[in-house]
Each structure stands twice: as C-alpha cells, then as structure tokens.
Specification:
Alpha-Beta Plaits, alpha+beta
Length: 148
C-alpha cells in the first residue's frame, strides 16, 4: 500500500503543565508527523474554568502528516488528561505574490507615485445684492400699505 502525500496541519494545544509539551510532540512524532515549526509556550489565564483549570500553557506547532493518520491522532489527543483543549486545522494558504491587473499585456501596471485626488462638488452661495438701508419710518409706511 502506497503512502499518501503528507499535508500541512497546525495544532493549537492548551496544557495543564508546561512539562506536558514533550509528551505532545512525542505523540506527533510517533504518529509519523514531521514537525516543521514549534512556537514558544505561553502561560495564559482562561476566561472560564475548563476541567477545573483556570490557567494553562498554550502553544502551537505546524507539522506534516498523512491525512489517513489524522483521525488516529485526534483520538490519541482526546485521551490525554494533560491536554485541556486542542485543535488541529489546515493552515491557510499564503500566496507568494498577488497578481496585478496587467491589461492583457502580461506586464504589471506601473505603480502611481501619488494617489489620485478626487474633485468634490462645492456649492458656492450666490452673492447678495446690496440693498439700501431703509429707515424705520419708511418701513412702517410700506407695512401699512401692504396690510392696508
């Protein structure tokens, strides 16, 4: 039987004690995993008690494993009392280079040196017509004419 191609996985583990870390990596290697990246362990306070624990040690690692062995690995970790929580995921694909719009020429578009400035519509008020100053007497006369 030919072995399947190994896929990349990422495991995040919350442990009761920092010493349990070697047990976790031992289980991974026993399953045939190749650990490609280990990250530092951090002590964290839990938001709520899990398995009567209020704090734990968190770490994550990236490893390669045959997909058929993943179910076996999950059941192995589920049985370990040192593990508060664990999660195995496939890490997101990181694209090396984003494609730029090339207008069909195969060449990337040149970068702009300055951002394009948008022109905004500005409302300009109409200038007021200058009116002559009216005295109070003239104003009262006009009001009497209108109101009659």
């Amino acid at each position: 039987m030919e072995s399947e191609a190994k896929k990349k996985y990422e495991i995040g583990v919350m442990l009761e004690a920092e010493e349990s870390l070697e047990v976790i990596f031992g289980v991974l290697e026993a399953a045939g995993a190749v650990i490609t990246e280990k990250n530092p362990t951090l002590k964290m306070r839990l938001a709520y008690p899990i398995k009567k624990q209020t704090a734990g040690y968190f770490t994550f690692a990236i490893f390669e494993l045959e997909p058929a062995k993943l179910k076996e690995l999950n059941s192995e970790f589920t049985g370990k009392k040192e593990i508060i929580r664990f999660l195995i995921i496939t890490p997101p694909v990181v694209r090396e280079e984003r494609r730029s719009r090339s207008m069909g020429t195969g060449k990337p578009m040149p970068a702009r040196s300055e951002p394009v400035k948008r022109q905004e519509a500005v409302m300009v008020p109409e200038p007021r017509k200058e009116t002559e100053a009216i005295s109070n007497e003239l104003l009262e006369k006009k009001l009497e004419e209108i109101l009659g």
